């Protein structure tokens, strides 16, 4: 459990880790290359460890030193990923593209649904079929083979029904080693897609257009070793910007790429906070005198990220007026509402829309985290709430935030991990609370 003593002012600087979603897909991308790959700025997260276990189960050698991961996929002894591992990490499905491209076959269990929605993989499958793969789903496993004795996938023109991040990444990786040119239309434009493209290019892949809605990949016969550093995590950065706003504290963060946070910064400004760039890779959050309601609609990049929706909802519970939040990317991503309401928020939900009526104060309460970003939202609410908040089910938080409590403690927050059955006691707080005005 995480116990938080709320209403402590924050100050200082926080270091932003490497992007989780880049790290996961780039680890899968390392399967494309039969030489050593050094990947730097890899965050230390449960999801990253799980991806490492999946690669190890395929026979890949991994070694971690600090934040650098050395991956050697010269020998892939297995084309089948183990279900027990895949079922714990949806991103592990992304190995299907590289495995098929390298070995001519791949068997990956369907990742299944997850807390935030059904999350099908039909776009990945149809794209691989368009590239000449025979793809069958049998007994819960996707079996993909190269058809007709072909040695390589074939370039194809693929239109994605929706700009899926995962499908764009799967198909882009598969196309790097295909014969001929692949064009992905209506491609996802997320910074992590661009990061993956840059990683593949560093290995010798020929990719242009990543970051736009049309990506063109000219296949090459093989890729070579590389040393690559992944981008800072824009969702972790966004979460800290909200931590500054919700506690009315001035804090700064680095390294960040401000262009990855345009939609988040725009929303913070419309709420009444300000964000200034003190250096090209450093942002400072300046809270407003008053924070007011704003409407949010989640969209694919460069729109407002679904991965920041829950954290902004926490902030809007304490902003004056009524905000409308529409979740358009995932169908079941408002499960944090019930927990925020337990803390005194006033939120109603109809379908995928939440109406948040601002309240003057949240009150600390025991709450349960339902998914990764919901956990972050509850931590943020706990930082601002009156009294003690305890958050259960921290496994979600550990999947995606590197040392969140340590970083918050560094900013002056009062929080710590405790055994599940210890009673909250305000005098346990590391120092007596300084109440925010
Ligand atoms: C990735 C991110 C996740 C983020 C999401 C949207 C990783 C590891 N995860 O997830 O943090 O919230 O992008 O920015 O990078 N869909 C289909 N068919 C498919 C694939 C997707 O219908 O074959 C739908 C999904 O159900 C969802 C929407 O498309 O409703 C977007 O999903 P997608 O962009 O694929 O998200 P992920 O890659 O799973």
Number of domains: 2
Strand arrangement within the widest β-sheet reads 21-22-1-23
Mean pLDDT: 93
The total of helices stands at 14
The residue ranges in which pLDDT falls below 50 over 5 or more consecutive positions are 431-437
How many strand segments? 23
Strand content: 15-25%
The major pleated sheet works out as: 4 strands, mixed
In CATH, what is the homologous superfamily of the largest domain?
Answer: Enolpyruvate transferase domain
State the distance separating the first and last CA atoms: 28 Å
Name every ligand kind in the structure: uridine-diphosphate-N-acetylglucosamine
Q: What is the name of the CATH topology of the largest domain?
A: UDP-n-acetylglucosamine1-carboxyvinyl-transferase, Chain
The chain-level structural class is: alpha+beta
- Overall shape: it is elongated
